[in-house]
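Severity: low
Component: inverse-folding endpoint
Summary: output formatting inconsistent between runs
Steps to reproduce: submit the following structure tokens with default settings.
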């Protein structure tokens, strides 16, 4: 099994919107960049084209992560999403570096007087506006369903859309400035686009590595969970709360203090109630291990 039927439909729908939207937008921006004499728009088209591969990777990662545990992966497949997010970050970083190098080279040519500059045409400006509106809409759409699915890969894909929208704003400024007689602004816009892309890539890489390396969720969350556990019937003390990320989910290790005069069966019943209460109240938690100590 790979998740519920409704989850499969959402995954398919989000993937279709991402791939189809990016293919059409990339073609439009590429044509506008070529015929509109705009290197910034061509750079932006390359960025949108990378989104197609990003969405495809996110789709594969989410589909695999929704599989039920098996003999080879008894704890589940959630970490495949983290691998997908890591790949998305690498793609973004490579894209940003390539766009940045191209922008610096073009700017150097213009400043050195070695470029036969032709001002961008209005179609490039229109393409930038269309891209901003389209990519911002795709960001909010993908972000909404990423939250529904609790999917780090689709959330990474959403931020990929947002980075494209921001890069289109930079392209709009660069193209507009070049049309007003400041040609160096257009390749400068490509450099700005590259920095935005690199920033998003760095965030994705950091988050995905944290998920893969069993990083703690944080003291604030652990303190909140400890306070919740302490309120449960039969719990006298909370001796330990440890959290670790497991893909886009969380695993918890608890040690609770109970009345030492109780039987083993009674103490175990308290621990089981605590475990079920935590799972019910915190949907993002995948596993809870509870050990009871005599208080």
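Observed output (run 2 of 3):
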């Amino acid at each position: 099994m790979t998740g519920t039927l409704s989850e499969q439909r959402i995954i398919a729908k989000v993937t279709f919107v991402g791939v189809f939207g990016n293919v059409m937008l990339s073609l439009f921006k590429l044509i506008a960049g070529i015929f509109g004499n705009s290197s910034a728009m061509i750079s932006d088209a390359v960025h949108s084209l990378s989104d197609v591969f990003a969405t495809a990777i996110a789709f594969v990662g989410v589909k695999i992560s929704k599989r039920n545990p098996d003999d080879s992966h008894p704890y589940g497949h959630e970490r495949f999403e983290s691998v997908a997010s890591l790949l998305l970050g690498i793609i973004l970083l490579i894209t940003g570096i390539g766009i940045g190098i191209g922008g610096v080279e073009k700017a150097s040519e213009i400043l050195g007087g070695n470029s036969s500059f032709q001002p961008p045409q209005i179609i490039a400006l229109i393409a930038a506006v269309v891209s901003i509106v389209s990519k911002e809409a795709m960001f909010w759409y993908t972000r909404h369903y990423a939250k529904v699915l609790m999917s780090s890969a689709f959330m990474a894909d959403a931020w990929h859309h947002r980075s494209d929208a921001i890069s289109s704003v930079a392209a709009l400024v660069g193209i507009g400035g070049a049309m007003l007689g400041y040609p160096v602004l257009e390749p400068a816009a490509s450099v700005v686009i590259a920095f935005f892309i690199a920033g998003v890539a760095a965030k994705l890489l950091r988050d995905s590595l944290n998920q893969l390396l069993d990083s703690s969720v944080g003291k604030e969350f652990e303190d909140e969970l400890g306070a919740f556990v302490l309120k449960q019937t039969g719990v006298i003390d909370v001796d330990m709360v440890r959290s670790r990320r497991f893909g886009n989910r969380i695993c918890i290790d608890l040690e609770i203090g109970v009345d030492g005069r109780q039987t083993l069966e009674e103490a175990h019943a308290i621990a089981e109630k605590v475990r079920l209460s935590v799972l019910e109240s915190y949907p993002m938690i995948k596993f809870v291990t509870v050990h009871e100590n005599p208080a």
